Every structure is written in structure tokens, then in C-alpha cells.
């Protein structure tokens, strides 16, 4: 009976009112509740302003959206939060690439709304960032960034809405991490990335799709790289340059990390460019856009990404190109999409969403 009352209450409220009245963590919970009951809710597609602003989608549909640069199919999974639980990898005990230990943050103290006078986060910015490279912000105090907006060429908006700023510094919208400063991240606030998930069907010698013995569903394969910094397998991807369109980031990062385009001759580059441009201009399945539970996150800097699936359905596009690790990748190969394969950060979640939308084995 209580569940019925909750559903009726949610149906009687406009989601716009919910967004206005409730704090971000409660908005995520309301979205999750609506999803579980199969009800529509409102989402804002900040990354494709030219295509659509805000629309209401039922949970089970995929709707095509065309931007000026490339086509996207918005999957219902894209609107879901990365996790209803507190971020975990963002609180890893030891900060990656360093000997720095985070201040321990229990689950019940992650949310900024929890009063915790004893909280004493460690302050750390990696030396590579402190040297003020072109891709990094200066220290707070030496410049005045405009948060929650497009600040010159740098997009400082959050994919999940406005974030708080205290004492001139932005606060991680998913809560405490045990470390302030920027760590390995260049930007104060959101650091925007793009993750191209390139897939194909696993086929036999005759070109027939291979089905999994247990689930009886066709098996997808995706291009995976082994990161040099941590040794974990991941989706090839990288940071969006200031003023760069996400569509270009997706294609550029895949070319550099999975095809080693930076080391190719002009003629080889031309051949590969023609092949992958065809794939990246095909309708892409945008499976996620939002906060990433990343071990590099801090209280003042965090990762956000757009994950888009480009599928070589016929197997005559990227499937025929020789993979070669480049840029930040140690190794690169086609890997079966399977729940048992551990990936970096939130990448396993992205693959799960792709498999479900493609009706493939997971």
C-alpha cells in the first residue's frame, strides 16, 4: 500500500518542481524510483544543446537525436546516475600515482549535508599539474574562474546540474573524497572527457554471430586499451579540449589510442581517417553522460564523461583495421563484452548498458 501511495505522489508532482525543490542527491533518488516504476521523467541534455534542450522520456525507449555534427540515439540508461550509492573509487585509500593517503570518509559522511567538524581532507595537487601546463588551470586566487557556466573556451558546467562553490572552490557534487586540491586533474570543478565505445559482433569463420552458451545471446566485442598509468583495461578515451566538439574528441581519442594515428605516415593516416570517419558519422548510441566515479577525483575536481557506442554492425569498417596501441595505451585489442571482465573506473557500467541496448550477452 505504501508503494502505491509513493507512486501516486510522484505522479502528481511535476518533475520540474522536484528539480527545483530537492537537492541533487534526492533528485538522483527520485529518478531511480521513477525508473524502477517505469515512469517518465525529465532530463536535460546539456551536451547537445543544438539538438534538444529538455524532454521527457519513458524508461524503455531509444529516441534518435540529430546534432549538427553526428547522430545520437539517446538510450534510457543514459539518464540514470552512475550509482545510487556513494562514490567508491573516488575514496580509494591511496591517491593514484602518489604516496598520498586520503582522509578516510565512511559512507554515511560522504554527503556534504552531513555535519562533520572532524573532516580534515588532505590537500594535494600533482606536480605535473602544479607546473601550470597549458591544459591546466592556475591556482585559485591567481585567477577568477566562472563556475557553472562556459568560461571563455572552457566549459565549467556540470553534466548533472549546478554544483556548489565554497570559498571560491567548487565542491564535488557526489560528496567528500578525503582529498582537496586537484590531484591529477587539470581543471577546478568538472573535467570533461569523451569515451568512444567501438563494438562489433563476434562471428565465426562463416560470419555467423556467435551466441553465448548460457545466455543464448550474441556476443559483442569492443576495442579495449590497457592504460599505462594503472595497468587496468579501459575504454579508449580522453579529455575534451577547450572549445572542441565532443564528436571530434571521440574520433580523435579513438584514433590516437587504438590506432596510434600520431605515428602513421600521411598516406596511412588518410586511409584510416576515411574508414573511421564513416563509422563515427553513423548513428551513435549515447549510453551515459554524467559524473564518473574515478580514483583521480577530489573534493574540488572530478571527472565527467560522455560515453557513446559506435557499432560496426556489418564488420567491414573499423573491424578490418589493425589495432595498434598509442598515446596513453600500453596494449589494445578486441575483447568480448562480459560482466566478468573488470574495467577501469565506471567503464564496466557503460559496457553493461551497451549490451542491454544491443540485446547482447552480458
From TrEMBL:
Its EC number is 3.6.1.13. PROSITE patterns: NUDIX. GO terms for molecular function: ADP-ribose diphosphatase activity. It catalyses: ADP-D-ribose + H2O = D-ribose 5-phosphate + AMP + 2 H(+). Residues 201-357 form the Nudix hydrolase domain. Coiled coil: none annotated. InterPro entries: NUDIX_hydrolase-like_dom_sf (IPR015797), NUDIX_hydrolase_dom (IPR000086), NUDT9 (IPR039989). Hydrolyzes ADP-ribose (ADPR) to AMP and ribose 5'-phosphate. Monomer. Interacts with GLOD4. Belongs to the Nudix hydrolase family. NudF subfamily. PANTHER family: ADP-RIBOSE PYROPHOSPHATASE, MITOCHONDRIAL, NUDIX HYDROLASE. This is ADP-ribose pyrophosphatase, mitochondrial. It comes from Seriola lalandi dorsalis.
Amino acid at each position: 500500500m505504501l508503494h502505491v501511495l509513493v507512486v501516486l505522489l510522484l505522479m502528481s508532482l511535476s518533475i520540474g518542481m522536484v528539480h527545483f525543490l530537492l537537492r541533487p542527491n534526492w533528485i538522483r533518488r527520485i529518478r531511480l524510483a521513477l525508473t524502477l516504476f517505469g515512469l517518465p521523467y525529465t532530463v536535460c541534455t546539456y551536451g547537445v544543446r543544438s539538438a534538444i534542450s529538455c524532454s521527457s522520456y519513458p524508461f524503455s525507449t531509444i529516441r534518435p537525436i540529430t546534432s549538427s555534427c553526428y547522430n545520437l540515439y539517446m538510450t534510457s540508461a543514459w539518464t540514470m546516475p552512475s550509482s545510487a550509492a556513494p562514490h567508491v573509487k573516488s575514496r580509494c585509500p591511496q591517491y593514484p600515482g602518489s604516496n598520498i593517503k586520503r582522509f578516510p570518509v565512511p559512507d554515511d559522511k560522504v554527503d556534504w549535508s552531513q555535519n562533520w567538524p572532524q573532516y580534515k581532507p588532505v590537500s594535494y595537487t600533482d606536480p605535473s599539474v602544479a607546473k601550470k601546463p597549458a591544459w591546466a588551470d592556475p591556482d585559485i586566487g591567481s585567477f577568477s574562474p566562472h563556475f557553472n557556466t562556459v568560461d571563455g573556451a572552457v566549459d565549467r558546467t556540470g553534466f548533472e546540474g549546478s554544483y556548489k562553490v565554497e570559498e571560491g572552490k567548487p565542491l564535488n557534487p557526489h560528496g567528500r573524497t578525503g582529498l582537496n586540491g586537484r590531484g591529477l586533474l587539470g581543471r577546478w570543478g568538472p573535467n570533461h572527457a569523451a569515451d568512444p565505445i567501438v563494438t562489433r559482433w563476434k562471428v565465426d569463420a562463416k560470419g555467423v554471430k556467435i551466441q553465448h552458451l548460457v545466455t543464448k545471446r550474441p556476443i559483442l566485442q569492443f576495442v579495449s586499451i590497457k592504460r599505462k598509468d594503472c595497468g587496468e583495461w579501459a575504454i579508449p578515451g580522453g579529455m575534451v579540449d577547450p572549445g572542441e566538439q565532443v564528436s571530434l574528441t571521440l574520433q580523435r581519442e579513438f584514433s590516437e589510442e587504438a590506432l596510434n594515428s600520431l605515428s602513421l605516415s600521411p598516406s596511412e593516416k588518410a586511409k584510416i581517417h576515411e574508414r573511421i570517419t564513416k563509422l563515427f558519422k553513423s548513428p551513435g548510441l549515447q549510453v551515459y553522460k554524467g559524473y564518473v566515479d574515478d580514483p583521480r577525483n577530489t573534493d574540488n575536481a572530478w571527472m565527467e564523461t560522455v560515453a557513446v557506442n559506435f557499432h560496426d554492425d556489418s564488420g567491414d569498417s573499423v573491424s578490418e583495421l589493425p589495432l595498434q596501441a598509442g598515446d596513453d595505451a600500453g596494449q589494445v585489442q578486441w575483447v568480448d563484452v562480459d560482466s566478468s571482465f573488470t574495467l577501469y573506473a565506471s567503464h564496466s557500467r557503460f559496457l553493461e548498458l551497451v549490451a542491454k541496448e544491443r540485446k547482447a550477452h552480458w
